[in-house]
From TrEMBL:
Keywords: Glycosidase, Hydrolase. PANTHER family: 6-PHOSPHO-BETA-GLUCOSIDASE (PTHR10353:SF296), GLYCOSYL HYDROLASE (PTHR10353). Its EC number is 3.2.1.86. InterPro entries: GH (IPR017853), GH_1_N_CS (IPR033132), Glyco_hydro_1 (IPR001360), Glyco_hydro_1_AS (IPR018120). It holds the Pfam family Glyco_hydro_1. Belongs to the glycosyl hydrolase 1 family. The lineage of its organism: Bacteria, Bacillati, Bacillota, Bacilli, Bacillales. This is 6-phospho-beta-glucosidase. SUPFAM superfamilies: (Trans)glycosidases. GO terms for molecular function: 6-phospho-beta-glucosidase activity.
Length: 475
C-alpha cells in the first residue's frame, strides 16, 4: 500500500500567468498577453471581441504577472525547499520564435529556459513542460488566423523540434496542448481563434481541433525520435458530468457532454476519431479537411500518458426549468445542490476526482497524471503578515485522499500530482491576482501593484510534510 516511491509531487505554473517580461529577451506577443482585466476579458477569450494589440484603455496583467522572468532562481529554490520532485511549467512559444515563423530561434529565449532547467536539475526537480499553455504567437493569428489554418502544424512542428533538440537530456516529460478541450469553450484563449461574421463556428473550431491533434501527434513522434527516453502526455480540462436527476434523459445527456471532452483524448490516446464524433460531424455539417497520412499519423503516435486538470465535477440536465448555474466558470454547469463552492463559485468535489481517475483509467488504460488541482481563494495576511490558509490545506487534503484511494483501493496508475499555481499567479479566467492558489504568497494586487516579494504561507510547510511522507502525513 501507499504511493509509489517515485511518485512525482510538485506544483504547476504557466508562462503567461507567471513570467511577465512580455517584451524582454526579444520575446514576441502572444494571444494570452492580450487578455485584458475586466468584463471584456470573457468576450476576448471567446473570440467574440478581436483584440490583437494592446488597447491603452485596459490593463493587461500578463505583461508583468509575478515577474518570474527575473525571480525564477529564487522561486525554484523555494520549490526545492518544499521538496518538489517535479515542477510543471510551460515554454512561451514567442520567446523561442517571436513571430512564430522565423527561420532561426531566438537564442535569448532558448537560454532562459535552459537556465531554468539547469536550476531545476541542481535540485533534482524533474521538469514537466507544456509546449503550449494556451499561447499562440499573435503574428500567426494575424497572418493565418491561427489554428484554423493548416500552416500552423508545420510551424509548431519546427518549434517542437527546436526545443526537444535543445533540451535533450534536461527535460524528459512533455505535455502538448494544455486543456486541449478549452478550444470549444474559450477559443481565443485555447487556440487564438477569432470569429468573423460569416464563420460556421463549429466548422472553424473542429478544423482547428484537427490541426492541433495532428500537431500533437507530430510532437509525440518527434519527441520520441529525438530521445527515446522522452515521455509525452496529452492534457485535458477534466471533471465528469453528473446527471442532475436519475431521469434517463439526464444520464444520456451526461454521457454526451463527457464525450465533448473525451473526443480529444480518444484521438490522442487511442489514435482515432471515435464513431460518436464522426456521427456528430455529419449531423452538424462539420467537414474536416484532412491530408493524406493524417489518420495513420494519429494512429501511430499516441501519447505515453494522460494528464488532466481537475477543479470540479459538472452537472447537466435536459430539464429547461433547472436554471441555476455555477458562477464564473468557463465550463458552465448546473449547480450541484450537494456541493459547496469556492469564493469564485467553483464547486468542490474531492470524490469527483476519484471518479474522474477511474473513468479515465477504465477508458484508456494508460498512466494518468493530475497536473492541476487547487483552490483559488482570497488570502488575508494576519497582523504579523502570515497567511494561515487552512481552507487551502483542507481542500488539498481532501483531494489527495481521493486520489490516494483511486490508487490504493481502485488500482489506478497515477504518475504524479502537481497543484495549480504553487506560487500565486495571475488567474486565467479573471486576470485577477486575488484569486490565489499558492503555497507561496506574492505581494501583487489586481492592478499589478506591489513589491512582488515572496513569502511562505502555512500551506507551504504542510505540503513540505506531505511530500516528505509521500502522502502519508496529511494532518
Ligand atoms: C486551468 C488552466 O484552466 O485552470 C490554468 O490550465 C488556470 O491556466 C487554472 O489558471 C485555474 O483557473 P483560474 O481562472 O482560476 O486561473
Amino acid at each position: 500500500m501507499g504511493l509509489n516511491p517515485n511518485f512525482l509531487w510538485g506544483g504547476a505554473t504557466a508562462a503567461n500567468q507567471s513570467e511577465g517580461g512580455y517584451n524582454l529577451g526579444n520575446r514576441g506577443l502572444s494571444n494570452v498577453d492580450l487578455l485584458p482585466m475586466g468584463k471584456i476579458r470573457e468576450e476576448v477569450m471567446a473570440g467574440k471581441v478581436k483584440m490583437l494589440d494592446f488597447d491603452p484603455n485596459y490593463y493587461y496583467p500578463a505583461k508583468q504577472a509575478i515577474d518570474m522572468y527575473q525571480h525564477y532562481l529564487d522561486d525554484i529554490k523555494l520549490f526545492a525547499e518544499m521538496g518538489f520532485k517535479t515542477y510543471r511549467m510551460s515554454i512561451s512559444w514567442t520567446r523561442i520564435f517571436p513571430n512564430g515563423d522565423e527561420e532561426t530561434p531566438n537564442e535569448e529565449g532558448l537560454k532562459f529556459y535552459e537556465n531554468i532547467f539547469l536550476q531545476l536539475r541542481k535540485y533534482n526537480i524533474e521538469p514537466l513542460v507544456t509546449l503550449a499553455h494556451f499561447d499562440v504567437p499573435v503574428e500567426l493569428i494575424k497572418k493565418y488566423g491561427s489554428w484554423r489554418n493548416r500552416k500552423m502544424v508545420a510551424l509548431f512542428e519546427n518549434y517542437c523540434q527546436t526545443v526537444f533538440t535543445r533540451y535533450k537530456g534536461l527535460v524528459k516529460y512533455w505535455l502538448t496542448f494544455n486543456e486541449i478541450n478549452m478550444i470549444l469553450h474559450a477559443p481565443f484563449l485555447g487556440a487564438g481563434l477569432v470569429f468573423e461574421d460569416e464563420d460556421h463556428e463549429q466548422q472553424v473550431k473542429y478544423q482547428a481541433v484537427h490541426h492541433q491533434l495532428i500537431a500533437s501527434a507530430l510532437a509525440t513522434k518527434i519527441a520520441h525520435e529525438v530521445d527515446p527516453e522522452n515521455k509525452v502526455g496529452c492534457m485535458l480540462a477534466g471533471g465528469n458530468y453528473y446527471p442532475y436527476s436519475c431521469r434517463p434523459e439526464d444520464y444520456a445527456k451526461a454521457i454526451e457532454k463527457d464525450r465533448e471532452s473525451f473526443l480529444f483524448i480518444d484521438v490522442q490516446a487511442r489514435g482515432a476519431y471515435p464513431n460518436y464524433a464522426l456521427k456528430k460531424f455529419q449531423r452538424e455539417n462539420i467537414h474536416i479537411i484532412m491530408e493524406r497520412g493524417d489518420l495513420e499519423l494519429l494512429k501511430s503516435h499516441t501519447v505515453d500518458f494522460i494528464s488532466f486538470s481537475y477543479y470540479s465535477s459538472r452537472v447537466v440536465t435536459t430539464d429547461d426549468s433547472v436554471t441555476h448555474e455555477t458562477a464564473g466558470n468557463i465550463f458552465k454547469s448546473v449547480k450541484n445542490p450537494y456541493l459547496k463552492s469556492s469564493e469564485w463559485g467553483w464547486q468542490i468535489d474531492p470524490l469527483g476526482l476519484r471518479s474522474a481517475l477511474n473513468v479515465m483509467y477504465d477508458r484508456y488504460q494508460k498512466p494518468l497524471f493530475i497536473v492541476e488541482n487547487g483552490l483559488g481563494a482570497i488570502d488575508r495576511p494576519d497582523e504579523n503578515g502570515n497567511i494561515e490558509d487552512d481552507y487551502r490545506i483542507d481542500y488539498l487534503r481532501q483531494h489527495i485522499k481521493a486520489f490516494k484511494a483511486a490508487v490504493e483501493e481502485d488500482g489506478v496508475e497515477l504518475m504524479g500530482y502537481t497543484t495549480w499555481g504553487c506560487i500565486d499567479l495571475v488567474s486565467a479566467t479573471k486576470g485577477e491576482m486575488s484569486k490565489r492558489y499558492g503555497f507561496i504568497y506574492v505581494d501583487c494586487d489586481n492592478e499589478g501593484k506591489g513589491t512582488r516579494k515572496r513569502s511562505k504561507k502555512k500551506s507551504f510547510y504542510w505540503y513540505q510534510k506531505v511530500i516528505q511522507s509521500n502522502g502519508e502525513d496529511l494532518d
